Amino acid sequence: MMLAGGTLAVGLALLPATPARAVEAPASAVPTPPPLPPERPEALKPPVAEPASPPPPSRPAELKPVVPEPIREPVKDVIRDKPSETAKDSPKETAKPEIPSPPPSPPERPPELSGSAALALKVTPPDDTACRTRLKRLGVDFEPLPPIAEGQCTAPLPLKVTRLADGVTLPQGATLTCRTAEALARWATEVQVEAERTLKHPLTGLELGGSYVCRGQNHDVDAKLSEHAFANAADIMAFTFGGRASIAVKALPEGSDDAQFLRTVRMKACGFFRTVLGPGSNAAHANHLHFDERERSGGHRLCE
Ligand SMILES: [Zn+2]
Question: How far is the CA of 288 from the centre of ligand 1 (A)?
Fold first, then answer.
C-alpha cells in the first residue's frame, strides 16, 4: 500500500511538469484509479487521429442522397459547405483548389498521332489516293513502301521518292509521307524557276541529308521526336545544277548569286512547309535546310 501510494504520488507529481498530460490525466484518472496509468499513453495517441474521423459521419448523411459513390468528393463538398457559411472566405478557399487543375494542356503531338486519332489511323490509314494522283501529275517518281513502325516512329503510308518534277533527282532517295513529298515537289518547281532566273543554269538534283529517320529533334535522344521520325521532314544539304558547280547549304556572304539563290529558295519554302530552318537558325542547322510539316496549335508556322 505504501509503495503503491508512493508511486501514484510520484506519477501525479511528474504529470504537472508536462502540460498536455496535466490536462487530460485528471479526467481519465478519476473514473478508474490504479489500472489506468498504463492505458493513458494509448488513449493519448488515438485522440490525435480522432479529430479527422468525426467529420466523416456527417458527410455521408448529406452525400448519400446526392452522390454516394466516390470517397474523394465528400472532402470537396465539405470544403464547399464551409465557405458558403462565410461569403468572404468562400472565394479564396474555392479558388485555391481550382488553380492546380489547369496544368493538363501539354499534348503538342500532331493531331494525327494522338489519342483517338492515332487509334483511328491503325484501323483505317489515311487515304493518300488523291495526293498520289497529284504527285504523278507533277511528274514525281515514287513507289509505296511498307508501313513504318519503329517504336514511336511511325509512318502508315510512306513513299520512296527518287525524282521530283522537271527531272530533279534525289540521288539518295527520300522516304516521305505523300503530303511532304508533294510539298517538296512543289517547292522544287519554284527552286527550278529561281535557278534559271538567278543562276542561268537548270536545277538537276537535291542532295538530301535525311528524310525518314527515327530520332529526336536535333539528334537529341532526350528531345521529343523529330518530324523526321514520321517521314514528315527532309534535310537539303546541297543543290546540283547542269553546267555549273553545286551549291552547298551554308552561311554565305551577301552579294553573290549563290547567296541570293539560297536566300530566295529558303524563303519560298515557307510557302510549302510549316517548318523551315537553316543556317542562322541554330548550330544544328548550319549546313542544311530542314523542312517539315509539323502541325502546331493555331496553324502557326516556324519560318526562319
Ligand atoms: Zn531535319
Answer: 8
> Which residues form the domain of 80?
59-85
CA of 236 to the centre of ligand 1 (A): 8
User: Ligand 1 centre and the CA of 167: distance in Å?
Assistant: 24
Cα of 153 vs centre of ligand 1, distance in Å, is 15
Domain membership flag for residue 6: no
What are the backbone angles phi and psi of residue 228, rounded to the nearest 5°? -60, -30
pLDDT tens-digit profile of 181-210? 999 999 999 999 999 999 999 999 999 999
Q: What's the confidence (pLDDT) of residue 46? A: 47
CA of 290 to the centre of ligand 1 (A): 4
Q: Cα of 58 to ligand 1 centre, how many Å? A: 62
Same domain assignment for residues 217 and 78? no
| CA 84 to centroid of ligand 1, rounded, Å | 57
74 and 201, same domain (yes or no):
no
- Measured in Å, residue 304 CA sits from the centre of ligand 1 at 13
Q: Report CA(281)–ligand 1 centroid distance (Å).
A: 12
Distance (Å) from CA 233 to ligand 1 centroid: 6
Which grid coordinates are listed for 95?
Answer: 479558388
Burial 273-284 (b: 16+ CB within 10 A, else e): bbbbbbbebeee
pLDDT per residue over 32-81, tens digit each?
455 555 555 544 544 444 444 444 444 444 444 444 444 444 443 433 44
Single out the residue of 139, 291, 268 nearest to residue 197, CA to CA.
Answer: 268
Contact 204, 167 (CB under 8 A): yes
205: CATH: 3.30.1380
Between residues 103 and 154, the one the model is more confident about? 154
* Residue of 302, 292, 296, 293 lying closest to 107 (CA atoms): 296
